[in-house]
Write a structure and sequence with these properties.
- It is a single chain.
- The protein has helices at residues 2-8, 19-30, 52-69, 71-82, 90-94, 123-126, 132-137, 154-166, 191-204, and strands at 12-17, 35-41, 141-147, 170-173.
- The chain is an alpha/beta fold.
- The chain has 2 domains: 2-45 and 128-204, Rossmann fold (3-Layer(aba) Sandwich); 52-123, no CATH class.
- A 4-stranded parallel beta sheet has the order 1-2-3-4, sandwiched between helices.
- The protein starts with a helix and ends with a helix.
Length: 205
């Protein structure tokens, strides 16, 4: 990212969501002059949660389901994890994995185990601990954003924890974790309202 910004000329305004927001935070910490305004939307920074140990245990749970039963079962377990309201409890950690059919997901294991979300390769993202001091010292205006439909879910709570650590207010955006996506994505948000909110935040920055 730093090299790309060097080629196009910075500083830039940057919107980044989920794992991309984690990468963007690392960019600001390492290269503080690259970004004028960063809108970090729902970064899954599990390390910042008060129940981080349980959250990591839940993450390991859906990874095991994927390895044991395949994509449909793993995705169903992932949906259950990301839809859990509030702190992760023993009730959640000991519950049986959901039936993928209830989410309209395939129940037959096709044998593949390469999904980047479920295979464990994204573990470096959720385990990342941001350099809060470096980010706060950067000239970058950092906006920590979360979708209103994510309220009290894991990525809302990680966003709120990051905002607190940086000493900024959590900025609410329309819709959910994929609120910028259209209807053809399979996870439709409110892209027009999301874009208007984003433009307003960037203009204010």
């Amino acid at each position: 990212m730093h090299e790309v910004i060097g080629e196009v000329g910075g500083p830039v305004d940057l919107f980044a969501s989920s794992g991309g927001a984690v990468t963007a935070l690392a960019l600001v910490a390492a290269y503080p002059d690259d970004v004028r305004v960063l809108v970090a939307h729902e970064p899954p920074l599990i390390t910042l949660l008060p129940d981080a140990e349980a959250a990591f245990a839940g993450e390991q749970g859906f990874l095991r389901v994927y390895q044991d039963k395949g994509w449909g079962a793993g995705m169903a377990a992932f949906i259950a994890y990301t839809s859990w309201p509030g702190e992760f409890t023993d009730e959640f950690l000991t519950a049986p994995a959901p039936d993928p059919a209830q989410f309209g997901l395939p129940t037959v294991d096709d044998g593949s185990r390469a999904d980047p979300l479920l295979s464990g390769v994204a573990g470096a993202i959720t385990a990342y601990r941001p350099d809060v001091d470096a980010i706060r010292a950067a000239p970058t205006g950092v906006v920590v954003a979360a979708g209103v439909e994510s309220r009290n879910l894991m990525t809302w709570r990680t966003s709120a924890a990051l905002a607190t650590a940086l000493g900024v207010e959590l900025t609410e955006f329309p819709s959910h974790h994929g609120g910028f996506q259209g209807g053809d994505s399979g996870y439709a948000g409110q892209p027009e309202a999301f874009a208007a909110r984003l433009r307003g935040v960037l203009d204010a920055g």
